Amino acid sequence: MNAYARSADTYLRQRILGAGPEQQAALIMEAGQLHLGKAIQALRSNDLPAATRSFLRVSEVLLEANIRLNHEAGGEVVENLNKLYEWWTKEIMVASATKDTVRLAAVVHGMGEIRQAWEQLHEQTVLSAKVSTLQFREQVV
Questions:
Q1: Which residues, other chains included, contact 74 with Cβ-Cβ below 8 Å and sequence gap of 6+?
Q2: Torsion of Cα atoms, 13 then 18 then 22 then 26, to 10°
Q3: pLDDT by residue (tens digit) across 91-141?
Q4: What is residue 141's DSSP assignment?
Q5: Which terminal CB of the chain, N or C, has fewer other CB atoms within 10 Å?
Q6: Which pLDDT belongs to residue 122?
Q7: Residue 23's domain spans which residues?
Q8: SS3 content of the chain, % helix, strand, coil (to 5)
Q9: How many Cα atoms sit within 13 Å of 115 on the Cβ side?
Q10: Span 41-55, mean pLDDT?
Q11: Number of domains comprising the chain
Q12: Cα–Cα–Cα angle for 103, 104, 106, nearest 5°?
């Protein structure tokens, strides 16, 4: 891994650690997209060791995304995300074996949609917190 790639990974890791739960979930999806993009590039240039490293990183990302789900309180949404992450894992395994970059691109797209959903949830949470703070301040005054 070159110095630029290491610094990008470090930066992303720092952003994840300093973020709230919804932001973390969005950043995890961003990491998945980043590493799948690297895998696609590696496959296109026939760099199988680089592709393998990227696939391993994506597997770690999906495992982390699944671990962060609140399986006890999440209900149907968590169940559906869990199924989606499992399906992506299978798609990535098949695509890596067949070098199917189209299949990988579809997973990248799906990760982008989930990322946007987490970002929107974060924005709603921040907005709700601001409204609650305003209402609290008005009551205190």
A1: 81
A2: -30
A3: 999 999 999 999 999 999 999 999 999 999 988 877 776 665 555 555 544
A4: -
A5: C
A6: 85
A7: 3-140
A8: 85, 0, 15
A9: 17
A10: 97
A11: 1
A12: 65
Q: Does residue 49 contact residue 94 with C-beta atoms inside 8 Å? A: no
| CATH code, domain carrying 81 | 1.20.120.340
pLDDT tens digit sequence for 56-77: 999 999 999 999 998 888 789 9
Contact by Cβ (8 Å): 20, 122: yes
| Chain centre distance of CA 85 | 10
Q: What is the pLDDT of residue 82?
A: 94
pLDDT of residue 21: 84
d(CA 23, CA 37): 21
How far is the C-alpha of 132 from the C-alpha of 36, rounded, in Å?
39
Separation CA 6–CA 123 (nearest Å): 29
- pTM equals 0.78
Please report the sign of the dihedral spanned by the C-alpha atoms of residue 19, residue 116, residue 9, residue 24: positive
Three-class secondary structure of residue 40 per DSSP: helix
